[in-house]
Amino acid sequence: MKQAKIRKILQDLLEIKEPITECDDLTKMGLDSMTTIRLIVALEQAFDLEFSEEDLLLDNFRTVEKISGLINVRQSEKLVYTEKSEC
User: Fold this and answer.
1) Cα separation of 86 and 71, whole Å?
2) C-alpha to C-alpha distance for 82 and 86, rounded to whole angstroms
3) How many CB atoms are located within 10 Å of the residue 26 CB?
4) pLDDT in tens, the chain (87 residues)
């Protein structure tokens, strides 16, 4: 489900119709620094999270697999923070 959502966002941003696999190098499909900024904003909105400054490297957004892993980390951290702040 998460990867399908990521793929849809990427297809819209990169304006491509062909399927994107989890290991496709997105830089070879048109992902550049400007598109990465738009991707980051779209992902933060779609998954209700914020990436840290350390996350903002093009290599972290090179494949769907890397993006999905990064989102998992940020969502886990958000969950832990939310649980702690409610006490």
Assistant:
1) 22
2) 6
3) 22
4) 899 999 999 999 999 999 999 999 999 999 999 999 999 999 999 999 999 999 999 999 999 999 999 999 999 987 765 555 555
Closest residue by Cα to residue 69 from 60, 58, 78 = 60
Q: What is the 3-state secondary structure (H, E, C) of 28-60?
A: HHCCCHHHHHHHHHHHHHHHCCCCCHHHCCHHH
Whole-Å CA distances, 48 to 18, 45, 55, 74: 27, 5, 16, 10
Report domain extents, the chain.
1-67
Tokens for 51, please give them. Answer: 């990436």
CATH superfamily entry for domain 1-67: ACP-like (1.10.1200.10)
